[in-house]
Amino acid sequence: MKLRATNLLFILTLLCIAFACDTGGEYTGESEKYFIKYYGEDGEQEAVDFHINDDGTVLILASTVTPSGFKQILLIKVDDKGNILWQKKYGTPNVNEGPQDIEPTVNGGQFLILSNMFLGTDPSTNEGKYDFKVIRIEEDGTKIDSMVFNNNGGDWETQFMRSITPISNGGFVTTGNSTDETIFDPDKVPPSVDLEELIILTFNSDYSQYLSQNPVSPGEQFGSGIKIFEDGNDADRFFWFCYLDQKPASHEAENSNFATFSFGLSGQLEVPPPGSESAVFSGVDGTDEILVSVCKVPNSLGGGFYELGTSRSSSTATSGTLYFSRRGPNLTKTSEGFVLNKEGNPLGGNLSAVDVAPAKVVEGFLVLANEQTSTGSTIRLTRLTSSSREEWSTNFGSFGRFNSGAKVAELPDGRIFVLGTIALETQKKVALIKVNRNGEFLN
Amino acid sequence: MRLSRVVLTIFFAAAISCLQAQDQCELTLGQAADEFNAGHFYDIPGLLKDCLNQRQKPEWRQRAYLLLAQTYLLLDDPEGAERSYLEVLRANPEYVTNDTQDPIDLVYLSSKFTASPVFSLFGKIGPNVSIIRQIVDRKAFVGSIDERYILRPGFQIAFGADWNYDDNLSVALEGNFVFSAYKLESKGVFDHDVVEFKDQQTWARIPLSVKYTDDQGKYRPYGYVGISADILLSDRATFLYTDGTLNQTDGVVKMDQQVEESPVLNLKSKRNTFNYSWFIGGGLKYKLGLQYAFIDLRYSFGMTNLVNTNNSIYEYGMGDRTSADFQGTGEPTMTWGHIDDYFRMDNLFLSVGYVYPLYKPRKLKKARSRSVLRSIKKQKHEVTGD
């Protein structure tokens, strides 16, 4: 009798195992842990920037081409699973808008969108002319107001702004350049004559000029302001990160280098005393270091700033390897050099830097770049140690198509968000990628 | 020409000789039956011996050995009777004595034997369809997308064997080679795009089932339930992407369409190789002589998620994650925007086939004599009653 009961139990156990099928419960929450989502509509869309809110939702800034052929600003809000909460379009009818940056205001609750507008081609030079626009929106995307710079009342030919930084007084500062050659194509080889001026513009919340005198370009043939931060200790002081081909005293060649300046309410750049110019510049003599992105370094990683750009061996190259410069809270340079691979050599691949973000859960930095392939480009995500050495790299996008990265950020749990443009079979679409702390689509 | 005539002549001579021999043996069997009826039992084995050593038709052999079995029973030679009855069953495995017409000792003898097949071989072929049961909805495209799985025809071929526990109950083990297919259609992608994902699998499946079969009549219905080990051999897919775009020309908005088809993509690494399923089924067997033709309908419930959760987008474990090979594994997602749902796959199989029973005449360890005894009692009762 006892034997029969054991047999029965054995058979029942076998039946339970055999009848157990895979169910959705086993995968609960997996779609939140990693995914790739494509956003867009008719035509082509290209990713530009994102902002991750405290509640895990994400504002994605992108461009889209309307049926009439004009580029517009596309703003999409998604939840932490990548589902669309809403999407809105902004832009002037029949004008090509080039969204560039989105940032939350200092007091929160609102966002500023920076856009460069293509105004047409100058028939005398056959070059494009641009103006920029700032749109202020509510958290739900409702437009509050906007301003168009109007080429400084028509006095300036063209300008292209690279970033917008909301400041404590409720206003904002923007920086960029007057280039008309490399607009919308930062990889394009810069002109050999002086056609570019670095620009800083400061505004109050009512769009009036904040500083009576805006900082002026330190002198260069080409370059661009990339990012401005308020000094965390002094609201009346700003840190300006840019690249330009002004020759440092220690260099023999006039090539582009990263440059970092500070300025106060007077608008005058605070230039180091003679003999200390190297404190301003970061770069290699004879090669172009083009700054692309700057992030604030959390105090847990030492504070200060991390600059990332592309080092190009020749003026005709459109990509190269990655170059970094680390600075302390007062812009004191602590280190600079090539981003290194695991073996200690410059990171391989034909790379163009895109973005850098601090990684706190696993200390280091997340670097986003575009890697040129024989027939296109893929998105390269690399985790660096705090000493800027590669821990791992992974690529996204089909090898034979032109994919490009836009933004990278670490989430509180160490997972990583990557925003990019993926070239699907027929069209480019905005892609939001969520991967684990190793850059994998895995739990 | 001459050679062929010689061959033909030899062939016809042999055929005529064979027919003559059969006719002769038919006469001999008739003579033996006469001897039996006359009570001359001892002569019968010797009379039939030569013919039994020759090649004879099964029907003739059945009659001859039946006569011999009865003869040996009357000669009180049980071993000879059993040998002969065994030969009866070899000549006709489905021979059964008639309780009311055959002598009771022969009926009793028959109860000690059976020729029922221990194993039956079968083969079958037919179409199938695959029903996708979604476990987790996953997609790379967002927004209001009308997504549905569509049936596509596949086919299967199978061979197997039944182990017959008795005349009704059997256990079947099969080897199936299955080609399955389905289509996933997504409409409304990026407003006006349509994506068709056609997926085809090749499987080796090993189903094991318990079957109950009616053992009487020309048409014999049956039903079964079982479990199957399903090994995925290959998985290949294609995409058909119809890109609909509204374009405005001279104030007129019109829809332009661009259709692109992918090459055949190997998705094997994105699937789990080892899976299993439960199935139920039934059918109808049609008796064709000693064999059967049948038609079978089976529904298989896939129990496992077919998607390899670790490789569903990229195939990890290939080394350098920046290499072209690695990027190639992400082609369905990165070029065609596809991510598999987690899903189980059911299948509906329709098959026609043929059963070849391996009859095995043998003596039973325990005679099925209860029914015979009942018959004897009944006969006695009838005699007493007269």
H/E element order of chain B: HHHHHEEEEEEEEEEEHHEEH
Oligomer: heterodimer
Shape of chain A: globular
Hey, which two chains have the biggest interface? A-B, 53 and 53 residues
Question: Total number of helical segments of chain A?
Answer: 3
**Strand count, sense and closure of the main sheet of chain A?**
5 strands, antiparallel
Low-confidence stretches of chain A: 180-186
Strand count of chain B: 13
- Strands of the widest sheet of chain B, in order across it, are 2-4-5-6-7-10-11-12
Structural class of chain B: alpha+beta
Offer a concise description of the structure.
Helices cover 6% and strands 48% of the residues of chain A. By secondary structure, chain A is mainly β. In chain A, the strands form 7 sheets. In chain A, strands 13, 14, 15, 16 and 17 form a 5-stranded antiparallel beta sheet that branches. Chain A has a 4-stranded antiparallel beta sheet with strand order 1-28-27-26.
Characterization of the model:
The complex is a heterodimer of chains A (443) and B (386). Chain A is mainly beta and 443 residues long. Chain A is 6% helix and 48% strand. In chain A, the strands form seven sheets. In chain A, strands 13, 14, 15, 16 and 17 form a five-stranded antiparallel beta sheet that branches. Chain A has a four-stranded antiparallel beta sheet with strand order 1-28-27-26. Chain A has a four-stranded antiparallel beta sheet with strand order 2-3-4-5, with no helix packed on it. Chain B is elongated and about 115 Å long. In chain B, a hairpin with a 2-residue loop joins strand 7 (219-249) and strand 8 (252-261). In chain B, the strands form two sheets. Chain B has an eight-stranded antiparallel barrel. In chain B, strands 1-13 form a two-stranded antiparallel ribbon. The mean pLDDT of chain B is 90. In chain B, 29% of the residues lie in helices and 44% in strands. At the A-B interface, strand 1 and strand 25 of A face strand 7, strand 8, helix 6 and helix 7 of B.
